[in-house]
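Structure ticket #2291
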Amino acid sequence: MANIKSAKKRILVAQRNEERNKSVKSRVKTYVKRAEAAIESGDKAAAEEAVKTASRELAKAASKGVLHKNTSARKTSRLTAALNKMA
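Resolution: structure written out below.
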């Protein structure tokens, strides 16, 4: 355990950031899974809405620094490509 006041503070800040990042990552995963499920189901309208929502969540996570911007772009691109592949 840290003895110095600033080190103690850094531990608290790191814990707070870890909780926030975990929450955001979990939220992103949920929306991505919903989008993939909607694409699998074949319902074009629901899939479009789900992909739109998922890409918005990915962009938010990237802008906050929780996800790398290229990771966000890659996932968004793959979802969009899968959506466009639907007949």
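Closing remark: Residues 5-85 form a domain with the Methane Monooxygenase Hydroxylase; Chain G, domain 1 fold (CATH 1.20.58.110).
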